[in-house]
Amino acid sequence: MVEAGTSEKLMRFLESGIYRFESSKAVFIDPVRVLNRSYSRFKVSPSAYYSRFFDTHGSRAGVSSNTRKRKRKEKQAATALNERELAADRRHQEVRAFLLKAHESLRGANELLSVMPSLRSGEDAPAKNIETWEPQQSLIELGRLWQASMFEITLNFPSSEEQTTGYQRILPVFGNLVVNDMDDDVEAEFLNSQYIIPRESHFYISDLKHIKNLVPDGGDCGFHLIVVDPPWENGSAHQKMRYPTLPNRYFLSIPIKQLAHREGALVALWVTNREKLRTFVEKEMFPSWGVRHVATFHWLKVKADGSLIGDIDLFHHRPYESLLLGYCSRKSGDSEKLSIDRAIPDNQVILSIPGDYSRKPPVQDLVLEFIPGLKPPRCVELFAREMRAGWHSWGNEPLYFQESRYFQPPCG
């Protein structure tokens, strides 16, 4: 419900999900509003999306948590940093001022702060308690079975002006490009689960060794924007329980150049703050992909009250991740020659309240003007766990957040 006297800037945020700060190179995003522009009849459930960081004074965010963080920080300060950790700290110090200025802008935006606690409540549907949900069926495990090629998904297309009655398509779910070519949401059934497929979208479920099946036949069918969110190798047993990771060198084989459009592509790669990983990407991965790094964005994670989810200087648990942006051409050495009207501003900060573990905020609107080629661009997300209207989504679980439990009931 929009109150009288709401500013035009806040009204634009409530419609688009994007709030731009004039005092810094920063934006605040409500991913739910952004994602909901992909749907006609269904809407992403705010309470299902925002499953964390809304309890600002419960036991998890209280004294005991702060005490543990303080002890870790004291232990860190007392331990001498090795060469790699010193390099990571230097990199952190270079971006720290941008992060703090962005957070200061948020703390000064009183009208935005006033609506942030209500982002989780939604408008028409009761809140969903995801802690009571049964575990999802694992598409990763099903895809490894010898019967995987026999599994099928049913797409239930609604009636339209051209088609007066609804109809079904039954298609192989693994190793097959599944397409919703309608200008409407489609409900899909696979085994005992229901999924929501956004309009004019495609998904392809496979493991990394079959990604070349996604490469288009011609350059005009390639992609202008390639978003990559790899399951980076990680020693954390907690992370491995949530989703399997891969050795970083496996990602060198991703055919980025072949996936790029003839007009070139903007590549957006999500990375953590581990210095070993950043060095690997800059010295090995981007060169092997033929990507020229041009800018870095930073995703600063905040709670519903606007505070950071953690101490900004806590060495191994900093409250931000980075998005490396670079250009790629299908022809060797041509990434320097791509015609872009505007240079991408470096160190732009994206603020948002995090959703479920590993779920990244949608960034297409923030980079649209820097994507080469004609508009609308052809976009693909690699290692996707959700879908968007007009996009291709590839990985071994692109339907993860498309399950109906993450959505509100259909409109109308």
UniProtKB/TrEMBL annotation:
Pfam families reported in the protein's UniProt record: MT-A70
GO cellular component terms, semicolon-separated: nucleus
Record-level Gene Ontology MF annotations: methyltransferase activity; nucleic acid binding
Transmembrane segments: none
GO BP, one annotated term: methylation
Similarity field: Belongs to the MT-A70-like family.
The protein, known as: Methyltransferase-like protein 2
